[in-house]
User: What shape does this take?
Amino acid sequence: MSWRAPKSSKASRAWQGVTLCLAVAALGLAACVTRSIAPPKGVTPRQVKIETTGYCNCGQCCGWEYSMFGFGPPVYSSGASKGQRKTVGITASGKPAKRGTLAADPSVPFGTVVKIPGYGFGRVDDRGGAIKGNKLDLWFPSHQAAKEWGRKTLTVTIWPASP
Assistant: This one.
């Protein structure tokens, strides 16, 4: 059995209406994902050219691996924390990683809001070992989506948070 619109024109229009409503609802939900991130009122934004890259929660993007030959809990695979337990999906600020999570240089305060063309609004809630200077990592729900974003140099709008 396959899903096909009924042959009558009245029923066909009804199916088209249902499809259109579902598409609009899906787009509305996609817009809501970062809607909770908004620029702070009374803060003057500035525009900066920044190199952006995508990342996800995987070990390849976040520098962790399973301990005990792949059977143990996740641990950091390099750096000062090598071998220590890693809670996957939790940012350096202690918040869960989700759409709109950004990783930035330690000189950028947590809570800084950034508008990125093609991505939307994001908030700096994470750090990265390779992030130095004018660079941002944008969180994606999958490694494939992060790879598709790739590396882009963009002019972004920044609303700095108070340190």
About this structure: Strands lie at 46-55, 64-66, 74-76, 101-104, 113-116, 120-126, 135-139, 151-159.
